[in-house]
User: What shape does this take?
Amino acid sequence: MGRVSQAQAEENRRRVVGTASRLFREQGMQVSVAELMKAAGLTHGAFYKQFASKEALVDEATAHAFAELARRYTEGLERYEGRRDAAQQVLIDTYLSVEHRDGPADGCPVAALASDIAREGGGREARRVYAEGVSDFADFLATDDQDGIVRLCTLFGALALSRATNGSPLSEEILAAAHAALTEAG
Assistant: This one.
């Protein structure tokens, strides 16, 4: 089998990082390298040509997920011509939706990766990226009247509880209650 071009190798790496970002948010970081590479449409052996270790991929996939999140709220600010309140409202509406609850692969890395990051221990790049991403997201959510960390905790807690109670009426009640609390106080 011939060698791939540098451009193809870069594209393969982007595909693996993007696939890992989605799978880790959907299934957790325990996804095996073999499962991940199969989902990316590449061989298991190709992984080691791209990454020094699974930990290195976790670091990149975490950064990728938070870059997607930042891109979403930056696009919201641009769409609403810098009106932070409007961009925040759209984000809250989307975050506390049934679609977001049911679609963790494309959802918020704060909620999807929290347990895995907490179990990984300190000193890892993924933990640093996660903490920075949480801080940036909280900064975006802050208003004159509400602390961004409190708003983020409300979003995160509601999403986590709603996912855990999915299938019962409580799940959607949790989303609605958090939505009301954030929009009434904002």
Notes: Residues 54-79 form the longest helix (26 residues). The mean pLDDT is 93.
